[in-house]
């Protein structure tokens, strides 16, 4: 009798324990938006997860997630932005290179520093200047202005002089490698170069040296370009804060660049490099290019290989050039594009020559927020311009991008989070917060987001009824949409306006005005051709920021009067 009562009591306690356990688990299931299971099913799921799922998770992490950054073991799930379904056949045709004449070497180094790549290439080819002399000029400017702009991580002086010497020797032998022969440049510091730190902008990785050559670096080296610096990336490619400070805008020294390609944008704007390579996942090129007033091309996804580059999202990350002109963007894209054998997402995309496009045969739409000067200039040059709106019904574009990017990023920085290294991150309201949230995104809902992304792509494709369109390059919805679709955009300077609350009436600081020219995926040549046409009759892109001459009665206060703006997701 007593034994029966005891057994009954034990059974009741076990049942009560299961109820309590199921109740506690139900709270966790609510975070997954999956609290529709009854108690017995919740307990069944927990038992299966413990016995089956978790061992698989751990085995997979041991195989591929012990290193951070996504440099190895890429996913086999490949995003292809192609709309026509036709793959390029054979090696892509190269762009024509316009020839210059009557370009003379300026007397002042300052004037040389603001020449474009084509002009500098002409000076080198005609032996008016050597690559070593040019390299000296830009190394000096990197050192001179970095303390103000906080835009350089490493000056690669020894490597630069070695590469410049080699370029001069080749030219002395009658070998000219093309428009980038002997031209200095910078790389965003998520791009690996042997023998130099690749810090990813993070305190945690600030002493990291990767013994690998990024594919894009190999391409530029083979074209004779000269690496003079590893330029600032926001920490782990997020915004403009890095372990050494926060990168400033040369046009208004109290303002920050925004976006993680902060160093490439600021250094190109300030004449510290003729061009630089940056990256974008969600606004990292468009935002700083617009803020710093430089021309930058975010190419079609898959155009440029990413081997040796820190990865955020394998279906969103893109590399592209920051330059003085659209023509420079075209030359550099032509050098760095092509299939990277170790990047499964890269491909030989067949682009037409942007220098041969007949723009009078194009129909170009303009959005409500387009800079109308651009529209009017192109119209005067024979382009058929029409009002346009890109319609789609998917209303969760920003959410799709955030969820995709955060989960992908966490897969590449799983060890970083599990080991608690995120506690040392420069801005706790950025990656640490987002990736903790990403930890509980269900796999099924990640895939639903990709299905929603596919629906968005189909709708954009259907409604992209023009050859290109013009609109604001930093509209956040458009940034998200463009990156999810994989479409190219070129940011073009279109003017300036006075800053708000200037420190003096004669201040030369300015707010830059820019616009974006968007084209369908694999039609980068259309966007480039339109930008080339616009810049051929305007000079906004030729203006120089006032980093040496702020104006009478203007000075740089310390500390700055402008406070850090609220954090925004600009990757």
Can you lay out the helices and strands and say which pair or pack?
Blueprint: H1 2-31, H2 39-64, H3 109-113, H4 117-125, H5 131-149, E1 152-155, H6 157-172, E2 184-188, H7 215-222, E3 226-231, E4 241-242, E5 245-246, E6 248-249, E7 252-256, H8 262-269, E8 276-280, H9 286-292, E9 295-298, E10 318-323, H10 326-336, E11 363-366, H11 372-380, E12 384-387, H12 397-412, H13 414-418, H14 431-438, H15 443-463, E13 468-471, H16 476-485, E14 489-498, E15 510-518, H17 524-536
Parallel strand pairs: 2-3, 2-8, 11-12, 11-13
Antiparallel strand pairs: 1-3, 4-5, 6-7, 8-10, 9-10, 9-14, 13-15, 14-15
Describe this structure in words.
A hairpin with a 2-residue loop joins strand 4 (241-242) and strand 5 (245-246). The radius of gyration is 26 Å and the shape is globular. It has 17 helices and 15 strands. The strands form 3 sheets. It has an 11-stranded mixed β-sheet with strand order 1-3-2-8-10-9-14-15-13-11-12, sandwiched between helices. A two-stranded antiparallel ribbon has the order 4-5. It is α/β, with parallel strands linked by helices and 571 residues long. The model is unreliable at 563-571 (pLDDT under 50). Helix content is 39%, strand content 13%.
